[in-house]
Amino acid sequence: MNSHIRPETAADYTAVYTINAKAFTQDGEAKLVAALRHNKDAFIPELSLVAVKGTEVIGYILFTKISIVSIDQKIFESLALAPVAVDPEYQQQGIGKALIQYGLDKAKALGYASVIVLGHEAYYPKFGFVPAVKWQIKAPFEVPENAFMGLELIPGSLTNVSGTVRYAREFDNV
User: Fold this and answer.
1) Residue 94 placed within a domain
2) How many separate domains does the chain show?
C-alpha cells in the first residue's frame, strides 16, 4: 500500500476522531485523544502520528508521557502507546504495524527510554514488548498480566524500575 506517516496537524483532528470511533466501534478512544491534546504535561505533538494514503488519513497512533511510581515514590518517566487505530477499510494491510514501528523509532530518536502498552498479548511481542511484570511494573487497574507490556527502547532502561504506572488523568474517563 502506498501510504506515508507524518505528525498529526489540526486539519487531521476530525479524521482522527472518526478513525478512532470506527476502529473501536465507540468513541471512548476518540474522546481520549481529543482530551489528551490539551494536556501539555502528557501530549507530545511529535508522537501524535497519522498514516496517510494520498490526502486521506487512514490510521493514527499516539504516545503520551506517563510515570512509573515506585513504592517509595521514586518516579521514572516513560511513554504509553494508546491508542493505535486504523480505518476498518484499511485494516490487515500493515498500516498498524507501520505506525507502531515508526512511532517506536521516533520515540527512541527523541530520547525516550521505554514504552508501556495494554494490548493484545499475541500482537505486541512482535515489536519486542514483554509482560511488564518482568520489571515488577503494574497497571493502576486490574488487567491480565500478559496484556500489560513494556519495551525498553534503550536496553536496560527498565532494569532498576518497578512500581505502578500513572497515566495522564484523561485516561480515567475511558
Assistant:
1) yes
2) 1
Q: Residue 48: which of 89, 116, 108, 99 has the closest Cα?
A: 99
Tens digits of residue pLDDT in 59-91: 999 999 999 999 999 999 999 999 999 999 999
Return the DSSP state at 143.
-
DSSP conformation letters of 24-37: HTSSHHHHHHHHHT
**Residues 95/101/104/109 CA torsion (nearest 10 deg):** -110
Burial of 119 (0-12, 13-18, 19+ CB in 10 A): middle
Cell digits for 26?
Answer: 465507540
**Segments forming the whole domain that contains residue 22:** 3-169
**Distance between CA 38 and CA 136 in Å, rounded?**
31
Distance of alpha carbon 58 from alpha carbon 67, whole angstroms: 30
The three cell numbers of residue 170 are 484523561
Cell of 108: 527512541
Q: Does 68 map to a domain? A: yes
User: With helix as H, strand as E and coil as C, how does 83-94 read?
Assistant: EEEECHHHCCCC
Q: Which residue has the cell 515489536?
A: 127
Q: Is residue 174 part of a domain?
A: no
Q: What is the CATH number of the domain that holds 95?
A: 3.40.630.30
Q: What is the pLDDT of residues 109-130, one digit of tens each?
A: 999 999 999 999 999 999 999 9
